[in-house]
Amino acid sequence: MSEIFKVNVILIGFMASGKSVVAKRLAQRLKMPIADVDVLIENEQGMKIKDIFKIYGEPYFRKLEKEMANKISRIKGVVVSTGGGIVLNAENRRILRKCGIVFYLKASPDVILKRIKSAKNNERPLLKGKMGLKGEIKKLLKMRAPYYNACAHYVIDTSEMTIEEVVKKIISIFRNL
């Protein structure tokens, strides 16, 4: 089936929308390599994303993210899982749309909150604000939603879907291209 995928499959969306876990399962099913932008940045920098934020700040991290988007744009046939904020940069949105088919994995604030609370690693540097966890999620989602929608070729609401259902939906869309 991987012969169908001559382009990259790119997953964007808010934190805890399912990007990383769907990317892993999709890559396994399609026998394609995976590129997780956050993991690649962590490996390159030798530290966790939360530490990059703490030590160097968000602008530095966004610069690293942009560099990684450029690197990924030069490869083909890869399932790409992005960080939730990659779409904040207009150049990143342009690059992602040009180098693959972009799926916005969308989820409701309540589902995101539930997923974050149940995650083993719920260290989320951007959710440390004064509005409480749910308030911060809503605020960031409202601000980012237009960027996710502008970048996406397809939108999949993962709120009520299993990982396998999301994977099947993506594969189904590709079969019909």
From TrEMBL:
Q: Which reaction does it catalyse?
A: shikimate + ATP = 3-phosphoshikimate + ADP + H(+)
> Could you say which EC number(s) this protein's record lists?
2.7.1.71
Positions annotated to bind ATP: A16, S17, G18, K19, S20, V21, R124
* An annotated GO BP: chorismate biosynthetic process
Cite a single GO MF annotation. Answer: magnesium ion binding
Where does it reside?
Cytoplasm
What EC class is this?
Answer: transferase
Q: In which pathway does it act?
A: Metabolic intermediate biosynthesis; chorismate biosynthesis; chorismate from D-erythrose 4-phosphate and phosphoenolpyruvate: step 5/7
Question: Which residues are noted in the entry as substrate-binding?
Answer: D38, R62, G84, R144
CDD domains cross-referenced by the UniProt entry:
SK (cd00464)
Which cofactor does this sequence's record say it needs? Mg(2+)
* Residues involved in Mg(2+) binding: S20
Which stretches are transmembrane?
A: none
Q: Which InterPro entries match?
A: P-loop_NTPase, Shikimate/glucono_kinase, Shikimate_kinase/TSH1
Q: How is the cofactor bound?
A: Binds 1 Mg(2+) ion per subunit.
Gene Ontology cellular-component terms for this entry are: cytosol
Q: What does this protein do?
A: Catalyzes the specific phosphorylation of the 3-hydroxyl group of shikimic acid using ATP as a cosubstrate.
Subunit structure, interactors included:
Monomer.
Q: Which family does it belong to?
A: Belongs to the shikimate kinase family.
Q: Which PANTHER family match?
A: SHIKIMATE KINASE (PTHR21087), SHIKIMATE KINASE 1, CHLOROPLASTIC (PTHR21087:SF16)
- Name by which UniProt lists this protein: Shikimate kinase
Species, as recorded? Candidatus Desantisbacteria bacterium CG1_02_38_46
